[in-house]
Amino acid sequence: MFQRKNWNSLFAALLASTALAPDVLTAQEVTLTSNDGSINIVGDFMGVEDDYYIISTALGQLRVEAGRVLCTGDACPRADIPASDIVAVGSDTVGVGLMPFLIDGFATSLGGVIETQTTAGAVVTSNLVGEGGFGDPIGTFSVASTSSSDAFSGLRDAGVKIGMSSRRILPAEARQLRNFGAGNMIDASQEHVVAVDSISVVVNEGNPVDTISIENLDRIYSGGITNWSEIGGPNAPITVFTRESASGTASVFSGRVFEQSGRSISANAIEQGSSEEMAAAVREDPNAIGFVASAFERGTKPLALEGTCGLTSFPSAFNAKTEEYPLQRRLYFYNRADNIDPTTQAFINYSLSSEADDLIAKSGLVNLSVSTVPQDLQNGRMRAVLEDAVDPFEFRLAREMLLEMFEWDRLSTTFRFASGSARLDGKGQADLERLIEFLRVQPAGTQVSVVGFTDGDGAFGSNQELSLVRAQQVANEIVAAGGTSLSNIELVVKGYGELSPSACNDTLEGKRINRRVEIWMRS
Asked: Are 478 and 521 in contact (CB under 8 A)?
């Protein structure tokens, strides 16, 4: 649902052209198709009023919210597609937080510059010119930063080249785009993870609270807790800030926080239009709480999150890369299959390459490069390993794992699986390529341990076997992809079943996080 904008009005502004005015339109037949593709309304198009389409049907005149449907037919409002070579729409986290860095870096990689840049509302248009500004045009980029939902409604128009999203496309959205000729939106050639990010729960810097449980976060946002004193803070009413429902940030936050309770954000929560506005509101209110993309913390205080099982996690870059922070999310580019051109493909390829890593980090988001951390610094994890061992067999395996952890560094590369599966997803394949690049330049004799884990469902012995199967699958993929270029690496495979959970096993998301294969390394 679009609470602030709809795609048609946005697209008209985006491409700097004027849609046909309702009072000059000659009534013509159009079809309005619902976002899930299940409903078609046919009638004569009469105009647009307050973001509603007005059409005349056999049942009389109807008003239909523009953001809920796609209008097809010659009378529908249309914009002049050629005004920009690359049109990108969607998430403000990606559009505002990341795209300016990527566009500038892309121009530089081609020896060019951004010659001119104009801003009109949520739309920024950049003209790229080669040879330091003295050469031929590279292309014109128009970026509309609104919400993730706009990415998928926007891609229904073939003039849009990139949809920017801070959540994965929904099945209904993918089916509808397929029906409009856009192709398979979850194919690796159309769905791209360009960065990862943590959603930080933030308070005013003067607030003494440092950690908050997911349960208390649920109760605050659903209206059950209204005073900071109820969770160990000052005796002051809590000002609750949220995002509009179409926001990908809000979608991820609500899905994770309310997963167990089934509650929803209270109507008393105050909506903010962007992460920037949210951070500013929290900075100004000593009693505020909000949630922002980590790149937008900006003078606020991020809180550590505690799960129901007592595991605590902080929104660090390493935890975002391993996807083990409860409010972690992937940031996506999506493209249609039927309108990809060389410039758009080159820009996407650049954004996914290691060449863009420093720019992604500079933006405050988290790139997909491989980083390492000494495991002897993860003391909380080591304690949890021993506490989870409930019989002699498990204790012996836990002791073996602890001794191993002291000797190995952990890489941020972490592969995850669907329940019962040992098949890598699209991001897993991309992570594999980056891992191979990283391992190729390590010293001869470097040892790499491929270590499997499972969630807590099922018998311990079966889980250990499954963890070994998954680890062996990843090891096989590494050998197949690396070939003789990894002759410097000694590879071993281990499986520790459900030991050392990275998240609580009482939610679907927690179980997903725990079904993983880690990569350890020592020289």
From this structure: no
300 Cβ contact list (under 8 Å, min separation 6): 200, 202, 203, 204, 205, 279, 282, 283, 290, 292
Residue 24: the pLDDT is 37
Buried b (16+ CB within 10 A) or exposed e, 289-309: bbbbbbbbbeebbbbebbbee
Query: For 35-78, what is each residue's pLDDT tens digit?
Result: 666 788 899 988 877 667 889 998 888 888 766 677 777 777 65
Query: How does pLDDT run across 172-186, given as a tens digit for each residue?
Result: 899 989 988 999 999
Q: What are the φ and ψ backbone dihedral angles of 442, each rounded to 5 degrees?
A: -80, 155
CA distance 284 to 211: 21
Rg (CA), the chain: 25
User: What is this structure's pTM?
Assistant: 0.76
Contact criterion met (CB below 8 Å) for 523 and 407: no
For 309, residues 6+ apart whose C-beta sits below 8 A from its C-beta are 501, 504, 505, 506
> Three-class SS string for 323-385?
CCCCCEEEEEEECCCCCCCHHHHHHHHHHHCHHHHHHHHHCCCECCCCCEEEHHHCHHHHHHH
Higher-confidence residue: 373 or 425?
Answer: 373
